[in-house]
Amino acid sequence: MWDEQTKAIRRMSTAEVFAPERAYGWEFYQRPTVEVAWGLLGAVLVKREPEGLCAARLVELEAYLPDGDAANHAARGWSERTAPMFAAGGILYVYAIYGRHRCVNVVTEPEGRPGAVLLRAAEVLHGEELMRRRRGEVQWEALCRGPANLARAFGFELSDNFRSVCSAELFIVPPPEPIAPEAVRRTPRIGISRARELPLRFVLWQSRCRSR
Fold first, then answer.
1. pLDDT of res. 9
2. Which spans in 19-62 are helix H?
């Protein structure tokens, strides 16, 4: 079910994996968007809440660039919807699709440069029962497959806009070991109509949880 990286994470203690002091800091996110996307691939998203703790390894991401990217929501400039993207990197940009689904992005780059990384898919490491209450009885590999499903499994809402990913309640822990280049495929983004040719989708290709 899991590749060697995920097995290594599961062998680590809860304190090692889910410790906010091990997480990426603000400076990590305030870098070029593609660099942040590479760094997030294989990292562990952790969310602590009253209902429990959810954690999953990020296996599929899409970068949205601040310059020359027509698919970026902020390509036409600032709006009330895209305001989080113009803040300094290290916060969330959450938006609605089809009226009721949510998609979660991690904002990148310095303030005023609207870049973001869309969280597309992840492998569940902790909190499966809670995620199933939100997602229903789906297969393990489908719990966080697809950006809307990931957002629902983690319980993200529009109210999470501007939320820090450098807090004790929400953070991202680096992979325990560097990701081997041969494990990654970089492809055009999917599910969009503009700038479809840009190779800005980053995938751990052997993961059963990636988009199909």
1. 66
2. 26-29, 33-40
Contacts of 188 (CB under 8 A, 6+ apart): 196, 197, 198, 199, 200, 201
**Exposed e or buried b per residue across 39-55, where buried means at least 16 C-beta atoms within 10 angstroms of its C-beta:** bbbbbbbbbbeeeeebb
Residues in the chain: 212
Beta pairing class for 52-64 and 201-204: antiparallel
pLDDT digits (tens, 9 = 90+) for 19-48: 889 999 999 999 999 999 999 999 999 999
Distance separating alpha carbons of residues 55 and 144, to the nearest angstrom: 11
For residue 14, how many other CB atoms are within 10 A of its CB?
A: 11
Domains and CATH numbers, the chain: 4-204 (3.10.300.10)
pLDDT tens for 95-150 read 999 878 999 999 999 999 999 999 999 999 999 999 999 999 899 999 999 999 99
Q: What is the dihedral of CA 12, 26, 107, 83, to 10 degrees?
A: 140
pTM to 2 decimal places: 0.93
Is beta strand 201-204 parallel, antiparallel or unpaired with respect to 92-97?
unpaired
- CB-based burial, 168-203: b 16+ in 10 Å, e otherwise: eebbbbebbeebeeebbeeeebeeeeebeebebbbb
